[in-house]
Design brief:
The chain has helices spanning 19-32, 48-52, 71-81, 97-105, 115-121, 124-133, 148-159, 185-200, 257-272, and strands at residues 12-15, 35-41, 55-60, 85-87, 109-110, 163-167, 176-179, 205-209, 215-223, 229-236, 240-241, 244-245, 278-286. The protein is α/β, with parallel strands linked by helices and 290 residues long. The protein is globular. Mean pLDDT is 91; it is low at 3-7.
Length: 290
């Protein structure tokens, strides 16, 4: 969370999201005796999270860029309802440093990492650069800020195929395209940019080598404000549909004890590289050669 938590006592939480994650946060708040505020677009007026929360505030038109991506409207809703904390859920503004900073400026606790940590890790390209400096191995990919012509040239001369186009600000499987041939790349870049702009308000994309037969392994980490960081072991999320995991398996059958230890140490190093505080996930790919 942003701010000093030693004396924080949260009484009301605004959930800046919709759907399942909003319902889960509301349920957790109820269990803790904390009041809840839902926000909703015109399209979600009758949604479950709106009916489940103690209060609900309409924040705009159906398009996310006119509602769930509007920092000003969400901060205004928190002020009007007296919410002293905001939970971003995942997606939308959860990885926007300016949202965490806006909450802090408004005197509202942001339930998540600091703006600095989000700035470094919320944007996938910036995250790649940051953890690389901490010695974390990376899948071959492109640097930030490249135009499509440059991306196409690098794909053909350096990365090779298959590759994956990914939204820099993305999550939840949006803004991602697997590309198998050079002919597919221009349209994949255009489609990924459109999806990223619609879902996250940021059309920036980058590319990574696609690991055929690779395994998706995640390490859950917990970090406090005193510099202590631990991991809770791994979970394998390789069974996916549309780049979204369907099943989680723990422990992963793909890891032996030595690799588990080395990957766990890597996850902690990645989190400490940005002074990460709160719960988080370090996502890894394991190729067939491990």
């Amino acid at each position: 969370m942003t701010g000093d938590l030693t004396s924080a006592k949260i009484k009301k939480v605004l959930i800046a999201n919709r759907g399942e994650i909003a319902v889960r946060v509301i349920r957790a708040c109820r269990d803790l005796g904390i009041g809840t505020v839902a926000v909703y677009s015109e399209a979600d007026r009758a949604a479950l999270h709106v009916r489940y929360a103690d209060e609900a505030v309409h924040i705009g038109a159906p398009a996310p860029r006119e509602s769930y991506l509007r920092i000003d409207k969400i901060i205004d809703a928190a002020r009007k309802t007296g919410a002293d904390a905001v939970h971003p859920g995942y997606g939308f503004l959860a990885e926007k440093a300016e949202f965490a900073a806006a909450c802090a400026d408004a005197g509202i606790t942001f339930i998540g990492p600091s703006p600095y940590a989000i700035e470094k890790m919320g944007d996938k390209q910036t995250a790649r650069e940051t953890v690389k400096k901490a010695g974390v191995p990376l899948i071959p990919g492109t640097e930030p800020g490249l135009h499509d012509d440059d991306l196409i040239a690098i794909a053909n001369s350096e990365i090779g195929y298959p590759l994956m186009v990914k939204a820099s600000a993305g999550g939840g499987g949006k803004g991602m395209r697997v590309v198998h041939t050079p002919e597919e790349l221009p349209s994949a870049l255009a489609t990924a940019r459109r999806e990223a702009e619609s879902a996250f308000g940021d059309s920036t994309v980058y590319m990574e080598k696609f690991l055929v037969g690779g395994r998706h392994i995640e390490f859950q980490i917990l970090a406090d404000q005193h510099g202590n960081t631990v991991h809770l072991g791994e979970r394998e999320c390789s069974i996916q549909r549309r780049h979204q995991k369907l099943l989680e398996e723990s422990p992963s059958m793909a890891l032996d004890e030595d690799m588990r230890r080395r990957m766990g140490d890597m996850a902690i190093a990645a989190a400490q590289a940005v002074g990460y505080v709160n719960a988080g996930t370090i996502e890894c790919m394991v190729d067939k050669d491990k």
